[in-house]
Design goal:
The chain is α/β, with parallel strands linked by helices. The chain contains six helices and seven strands. The strands form two sheets. The chain has a five-stranded mixed β-sheet, sandwiched between helices. A two-stranded antiparallel ribbon has the order 2-3. Helix 1 runs antiparallel to helix 2.
Amino acid sequence: EKVPDRDAALQALRELKGLAVSHDLYVEEKKAEGSQRQELAKQREKIVAERSTKMSELQKTFTQGLTNLDRQATGYVLEDLLRELFGLFDIDYRRPYKTAVEQIDGHVNFEGFDYIVEARWRKDQPTEAEISGFQGKVERKLESTRGLFVAVQGVRHEVVNSFSGRGCNIIIMDGFDLAQILEGRVDLRDALKFKIEKAAQEGRAFVSLGEFQR
């Protein structure tokens, strides 16, 4: 009551009260953000752990398939393995389906492009005619459609060269590539980007993940 400027003193008290309230709100907000970060970190750890467990299971399935002499059975195993693998990386994978004239082993959409999938796990490496037949399936779809040819047994160098260069619209993945991904050495998304970039920049239908550098 004895201050020279009572109104100014009251205004100063109001401002101080406002600052105190704002500070408390700020502190509470920071506490809430901290709790959210901790919860998100826990969720990420859980997702990583679950993915690691599932990847180990898929790797075991793949290893067992290498000694299975029933090639038809391993073909079905590969189709299921690819679907589950892509799912772990949040890439939608459509199961095998049939059109009026052909069998499609799978379909994925990655970075805005559609990919028709061919899954091969046979005794012999695919011939040029077999890959050409797959390329025909790709070319009968929408113009921007590409192909992902997965051949666990690999593809001969001279056959790969037949589908490299100008107009390259398929990428090839072999058993070594698949093993690298399942062992966690290369992230699936990084592997696909790497192969796509090599096909786009150098016209190479197949480039081994052995050349991949983090």
